[in-house]
Amino acid sequence: MKFNFAHLLLAFAVGALAASGALIPNVQASWQPHMDAALGDLRSARHQLEIAADDKGGHRVAAIGIIDNAIGEVKAGIQAGN
Asked: The whole model's pTM is what?
């Protein structure tokens, strides 16, 4: 197959669109290392509370609920950032 100016122009246009994010809009926006780390830490904290021995007067269950809300907020923040 012979390459001509039209092929070069098409390749340039596709490359420019990809670089601008028009073809893949969430690639750059989805990298949120601090939000991702916070989400991981919250999930880890929730797991530790789940395996804790006693109810601690209802405070363990309340803390799990607060963490669940925080996880939801972090997820919403990640989506808003995308």
From this structure: 0.62
